[in-house]
Specification:
Number of strands: 7
Strand order of the largest sheet: 5-7-6
Structural class: alpha+beta
Order of helices and strands: HEEHEEHEHEE
Distance between the termini: 18 Å
Largest sheet: 3 strands, antiparallel
Number of helices: 4
């Protein structure tokens, strides 16, 4: 997953349990960050499909990933912490919204895209409107879309 992110100009911010938080457009901004995020999500699903096939042969269950190109908005990317522990991370409402929308990325193998992210794409894919979603911490709904990803076969 790390390679998929780095190959598309992303920055791996941190690993959180079985999740990875990545950012596109920081520390160096680039105009196509939304497209890079979506392309990365698709590449990650393809990589997971290959790993799931390998695990299946070994009798292990599939992982069933969910992917979410974060809503396109402003975040603070900075070194935060204290003298004892300092890290480069993202903070802001958009980071919180991304985490809330991740729960909507079901079934496994789909990508959820917020309306602002969809509008910023260079190549807009066919998506299924999910309508307005109320999420924790927001008083107004967020318009979201689901992209069912058909991963290419090797």
């Amino acid at each position: 997953m790390n390679k998929a992110i780095l190959d598309r100009d992303g920055t791996v911010m941190q690993f959180i349990g079985d999740a990875v938080m990545a950012c596109f457009g920081a520390p160096l901004p680039h105009a196509h960050h939304a497209q890079h995020a979506l392309d990365t999500a698709i590449a990650m699903l393809e990589a997971q499909r290959d790993l799931d096939e390998e695990w299946s042969v070994r009798g292990l269950p599939a992982f069933g990933p969910r992917h979410l190109p974060s809503p396109r908005d402003t975040v603070a990317a900075a070194m935060l912490g204290s003298e004892e522990r300092l890290e480069y991370t993202l903070v802001g409402d958009t980071v919180n919204l991304a985490q809330r929308l991740q729960d909507l990325a079901r079934p496994a193998g789909c990508v959820v895209v917020a309306e602002a992210t969809l509008a910023a794409l260079d190549d807009v894919p066919a998506v299924e409107p999910m309508g307005e979603q109320f999420v924790k911490g927001r008083q107004t709904p967020v318009t979201t879309y689901r992209l069912e990803v058909t991963v290419s076969t090797s």
